[in-house]
Sequence to fold (145 residues):
Amino acid sequence: MSLVITLGSAVAVAQHRSVDASKLAAYGKSLPKVTVPTFGLEQATYLAAWPLSCVDHPQAAPEGAQYLWLYGERPKLPFDYDKTRAFYGCYDWHSAVNSTWMMVALSKDYPDLPLRRLMQEKLTEHLGEKNIAGELEFFKTAKNF
Fold:
């Protein structure tokens, strides 16, 4: 499904960029069918352990990683960062968003997952109104993000 959506989006972009959309569509049709992997409860539990191991732990960053830390200073985390932001663990902001999405997907797809209750607790903590407001505030001020 996502491959079809992606190809449809690519055709729409191609139309705006003077690329031959019919060639792009033909190429998409020539690709092999995508088989979506299926996971059992054991694999889902293994996958759930990854985001749970880092979701609450702000990670150290290289000198240039200014998208997460205060601008114009050595990288450091602002006071109470974990109380005012939703995505801060798991290496960087983007990884934290992906890890959060994985917990949501696993919680939905595996209602009997042993780690489901813990994942839901973490999602409730991280996706509260105050945390999302903190993310929005960050994007208002982080012009270089």
